[in-house]
Amino acid sequence: MKRTGGLLALSASLALVGGACGGPASAGPMELTVFAAASLRDAIVEVERSYEAATPGLDLVVATDSSTTLRAQIEQGAPADLFLAADDRNPAALAHAGLADGPPVAFAANWLTIIVPSDNPGRIETPRDLARDGVRVIAAGDEVPISRYAAEAVTRLAALPDYPADFAQRYVANVVSREENVRAVVARIELGEGDAAIVYQTDARAATGTVDIAIPDEANIPATYTGVVIAASAQSAAAHALLAWLAGPDGRAVLASFGFGSPR
Questions:
Q1: Both 32 and 101 in a single domain?
Q2: Do residues 201 and 117 share a domain?
Q3: Do residues 7 and 88 both lie within one domain?
Q4: Fewest Cβ atoms nearer than 10 Å: which of 78, 135, 171, 239?
């Protein structure tokens, strides 16, 4: 397995085997290109190992970035077979534009939490502190799914007792940078370049040098991950098979080991 810039190349070095009737083997493996949300980056490595072990003759090539960025690349003609997003909006947009082969399929769920550097320079103790003067909040771009989920969570927090009426406005005023995706947000906090960030629980679990601050259940937002096969794919049957595996018990077990839940 190797990384080339933002591209994660995952290959099994296995030749195609003959069918049940003893057909001849193919000259080489089938390559399947998967565009996956940045928050799936660690889990997709284990997906590669497990799925390719169960599917001899398949090579996965995975690119990770924000779901919005990946959708835009697909719209511009980037060659992808399967799109795995951290929301339902981006796959639905592709389907609405006629760029999907079949409807989006929900395959995982995630939740939100707040992370701070382990030495907690901003003295963040509860979500209320995100609105305190001088706190440096790191966030992602407005169209990145984590930002939409975070905005909804902040709105819900503002409605809770003991939260100031202008909590949401104060939170936005404290945002000091907008990153390309949620993994870049986590990296800024790991480096101590911000005081706090709202991220997915799975990213907080994988982070180093950070501490979690819980978001109350009544304000937390369940993030639904959905996938869609790309209409232009030359390997649509294989892409549908992988998506079905992810949404099934074997795929969900792999994702659960990284903290993902089952979609509602």
A1: yes
A2: yes
A3: yes
A4: 78
The rounded distance, in Å, linking the Cα atoms of 178 and 190 is 16
DSSP 105: E
- Distance of alpha carbon 160 from the chain centroid: 28
User: How is residue 245 written in tokens?
Assistant: 């595996």
* Residues 123 and 93 reside in one and the same domain: no
Domain of residue 145 covers: 112-213
DSSP secondary structure code for residue 189 in this structure: H
φ, ψ (nearest 5 deg) of residue 88: -105, -15
Q: How many CB atoms lie within 10 A of CB 249?
A: 9
pLDDT at 78 over 80: yes
pTM summary value: 0.88
Q: Are residues 50 and 79 in the same domain?
A: yes
pLDDT at 22 over 60: no
Residue carrying the six token digits 């399947």? 32
- Tell me the angle at which helices 41-54 and 236-247 cross, rounded to the nearest 10 degrees: 110
CA distance 255 to 47: 8
Domain shared by 184 and 231, yes or no: no
pLDDT at 91: 98
The DSSP output letter for 57 is T
Dig out the tokens for 90 from the structure. 């981006």
The average pLDDT across 229-243 equals 97
As a whole number of angstroms, the distance between CA 93 and CA 71 comes to 8
pLDDT at residue 8, rounded to an integer: 38
pLDDT digits (tens, 9 = 90+) for 179-195: 999 999 999 999 999 99
For all residues of the chain together, what is the average pLDDT?
90
